Amino acid sequence: MRHIASRHGGILVIAHRGASAEAPEGTRAAIRLALRYRADMIELDVQMTRDRRLVIFHDDRLERTTDGRGRLGMRRYAELARLEAGAWFAPRFSGERILLASQALSLIPPPRRINLELKRTARRRALIRQLVRRVRGTRTAGRVLISSFDAGLLGRVKAAAPRLARALLCRDRPRRALRRAIRLQCRAFHPHVSLVSPSLVADAHAAGLRVHAWTVDDPQEARRLARMGIDGLFTNVPARIRAALSRIPR
Ligand code: G3P
Ligand code: MG
């Protein structure tokens, strides 16, 4: 994945689950809104259905963001495709559906980039096989960044498709995670925002990794991270963060 200078002082604005403060997360509506707000990258969570289709979905269970019940991984795609995935957010989004990963990839045109976050799964091999197929099938490999909290899963992605860019996510023990990310030859490191420090950013940069922090909705915090040399910010409010960063010379 090429690093392109963004319009926001060099810092990527990454729409977290799409523009998820204003539209139901992970849906077509959230992706379209993120594109309208000119997010540089869109982050989407990926899971596999019982019949091995890759879908965009964050939770293990269906209740919070659909009218379905139970665990997503236990259901076939045909059942999931009928669920209402927008009305929980606001009535005007009713009719939104759970997206296939391939549909989501096709919705995001160049030069926008896509971060697919792989959620943990016991079916790693099948997940990766499907992932590689979908990315190749949609010709998005050069614009996709694959991330996960699961270093073992990323190791398998590396073995299956060494040229797909990878990023390790981290919610604690950032030094240990950074060492792992370096060993996995990741393109980027994705720490929780509370873990970011100037020295962590400097050490990641020294090892050739970019640092993208999650999740930042506050303009002041965005500017503070910009001063630390951050390379990208995940945000639920891409328009607000883009505006905040555009005022920073870097
Ligand atoms: O990829 C950054 C962030 O999405 C990780 O946490 O729970 O929002 O998927 P989560
Ligand atoms: Mg995520």
Description of the structure:
With 250 residues, the chain is an alpha/beta fold. It has a domain at 12-46 and 108-246: TIM Barrel (Alpha-Beta Barrel), CATH 3.20.20. The protein is built from nine helices and nine strands. The protein has helices at residues 28-36, 77-80, 101-107, 124-137, 151-160, 174-183, 198-206, 219-227, 238-245; strands at residues 12-16, 41-48, 54-56, 113-118, 144-148, 165-170, 188-191, 210-213, 232-235. An eight-stranded parallel barrel has the order 1-2-4-5-6-7-8-9, surrounded by five helices. Helix 1 (28-36) links the parallel strand 1 (12-16) and strand 2. Helix 4 packs across helix 5 and helix 8 (219-227) crosses helix 9 (238-245). The longest helix has 14 residues, at 124-137. The protein is globular and about 50 Å long. The protein starts with 11 loop residues before the first strand and ends in a 5-residue tail after the last helix. Residues 1-7 have low confidence and may be disordered. The protein binds SN-glycerol-3-phosphate and magnesium ion.
Number of distinct helices: 9
- Overall mean pLDDT stands at 95
Q: State the distance separating the first and last CA atoms.
A: 22 Å
Pairing-aware structural class of the strands and helices?
A: alpha/beta
Flag low-confidence runs.
1-7
CATH homolog superfamily of one domain = Phosphatidylinositol (PI) phosphodiesterase
Order of strands across the biggest sheet?
1-2-4-5-6-7-8-9
Radius of gyration: 17 Å
CATH architecture of one domain: Alpha-Beta Barrel
Largest sheet geometry: 8 strands, parallel, barrel
The hetero compounds bound to this protein are: SN-glycerol-3-phosphate, magnesium ion
Order of helices and strands: EHEEHHEHEHEHEHEHEH
